[in-house]
Amino acid sequence: MRLGFIGFGEAASAIATGLAEEGLRDLYAYDVVCGPALTERAARCGVRLVTSLAELAAQADLVLSLVTASGALTVAREIAPHLRARTLYADLNSCAPQVKAEIGQVITQLAPNVSYASVAVMSAVPPLRHRVPLVADGPGARRLRETLEPYGMNIEVLEGPLGAAATLKMCRSVVLKGMEALFLEALLAAEKAGLTEQVLASLNASFPDKPLGDLGAYLLERHRLHAQRRADEMQEAAATLASFAIEPLVSAGAARRLRWSAERLTSTVEVSGSGSEMGSEDLQARSYRTLLRRLNDTQK
């Protein structure tokens, strides 16, 4: 089996590393940004970089799309005419269910002999790598599970309409990304008042069995590393609610807050490359406190 990744960022490289350790050798990737860092990352994972989507399609029996929510449909349109018969195309991007369905229509129209699976990634990828929980639907979902489970991947097949897995994830994101936005907004004020640690300690005291302050620190560290992507996902979650005729009053506000932050986190924000799962507690604290201070500085 030859597996190709569209996009080779944090999630794809983590999955590739795990699959390589499980014995999968034929790994390929295409990314529009191809610099020294990407080349080094691919070499560490044993992944061969290709120079075009057409070349990736020529090499791969299974294609995993891991780009962005905003780019998922465009990428599907670009690669579909090049996909060989019996290829399995799986979209793992955090898109609204209607976008997942549109991607399925594109594959059906432009590559009728290709199977499609709509996949939702249900946790942060780096700590779990290829074992991250996935929920899949669509005509290619069972084949995806049968193909990748022997390599240790954790795939649940969800019965229902195309995009059902995305609906599940987006409803989950309303809660998780919504909490992220709440913590961000509350701690921006707390940081200005010099009370960040006290607020977090108070939250932990309110929920001693499940420290809420620790969750807030974790969510803000993830936000620091992936603000734009998480803002995009919250926007997709709001769109999902709207598709069910539920006005996303809270979700739309959370999306605006996350977008506000993402737009202010420029390249001057230090991203060490080590997620919160890999850093010490002191490093995590410095990271999210630095985030809060920088965002507050943009309002002066």
Automatic annotation (TrEMBL):
Residues 2-86 form the Pyrroline-5-carboxylate reductase catalytic N-terminal domain. Keywords: Oxidoreductase. Coiled coil: none annotated. Pfam families: DUF1932, F420_oxidored. GO terms for molecular function: oxidoreductase activity. The active site is at K169. This is Dehydrogenase. Residues 190-260 form the Phosphogluconate dehydrogenase NAD-binding putative C-terminal domain. It comes from Thermogemmatispora aurantia. SUPFAM superfamilies: 6-phosphogluconate dehydrogenase C-terminal domain-like, NAD(P)-binding Rossmann-fold domains.
